Known about the structure:
InterPro entries: CFA/CMAS, CMAS, MeTfrase_dom, SAM-dependent_MTases_sf. By secondary structure, the chain is α/β, with parallel strands linked by helices. Helices cover 44% and strands 15% of the residues. The mean pLDDT is 90.
Amino acid sequence: xxxxxxxxxxxxxxxxxVPLPVRIRAWDGSEAGPPDAPALVVRNRRAxxxxxxxxxxxxxxxxxxxxxxDIEGDLYAGLEMMSGLVWERGEDARTLSEVLRDPxxxxxxxxLIVLAWPPLPPAPPREELRRxxxxxxxxxxxxxxxxxxxxxxxxxxxxxLGPSMVYSCAYWPDPDSTLETAQxxxxxxxxxxxxxxxxxxxxxxxxxxxSMAIHAAREYGVSVVGVTLSHEQAAYARKRVAxxxxxxxxxxxxxxxxxxxxxxxxxxxxxxxxxxxxADRYLEYxxxxxxxxxxxxxxxxxxxxxxxxxxxASYHLDEFIDAYVFPDxxxxxxxxxxTQLERAGFEVRDVESIREHYGLTLRRWVxxxxxxxxxxxxxxxxxxxxxxxxxxxxxxxxFERNRIxxxxxxxxxxxxxxxxxxxxxxxxxx
Length: 430
């Protein structure tokens, strides 16, 4: 009799101490659980082995990337249900070691081992980046991490991001707007916060595929230097710049921002780049940008932030995102970001949270990916496409539920006179 789903439901429920909220569909065709709930599809015994050998988030992620696990039905509802079991158990949830002190739990694990036979550790999917963590955020390690994330293929990113080719939170006039309109509005909002006008010189740190540089030069008449560590991004951006007829006003470089020496600039935009810097290097990052600005110049730092922890020493990186998406990426609370910018000498003049906007943006990116799924898999790999679908959908939920946020911080390198150059009512850019 086909009963793997029933056995999985009962055994995992016993280990977790709560009933599974999702339906399980197992490799033998059996199903168990709430009939109207999204289905967690367990395609083979290897999925169970992955969870046994690496319990928790990383085991689930490896099973997902390898195609051993899937969610059938509403992806967001399924992930929300699973997140309650894996990521949000609460302070009273038992640790794995506590669970295994329970004789009944140990018996459940033994039965899972039998069900998952043979009990050999599966190799991680090839999309997982495995590297030593001894030397984070050196120039060479940052270059390797950026390449892992961004050199996936420009054609793949065109599917996900759409014509705007902007890989950061859009700014939505309303939820029914197009992604392209919302990304235009975000770039324009940043340009206005920076006070861009003809004759100024802008440094775009982490320039991506050139969208901010092109917008600033085309719409505001500034000269732009854009720097990225990704060769694929730089080649794509240069082609776009040439197509716009802006080669006389935009220079795209493959260069670490720490190596930029031809300042000072009138303005600096850093959009979705600071997440790669790392907590230990953040003051250095802020000091470098301060050095590159003219007195009176403005910095717009657009950055994802996490919620503060009661015990910051206990904070750890998200295992899935660190292994598959943003190697060595680190999120900091917005208060930490503001403090470090001020320690570097900046005067922080405005902080705007646009958290809800990122949920809308990510859902559009997921829809773009799903709408051209077969081509996306051909352009990268089935595993890489699954990484992006899971990452973006889970992040959409995280922004919507206020687990993480995104903030635009406007800071000024005030001159000795103390005049910031900002209008008395600084929110006039809205």
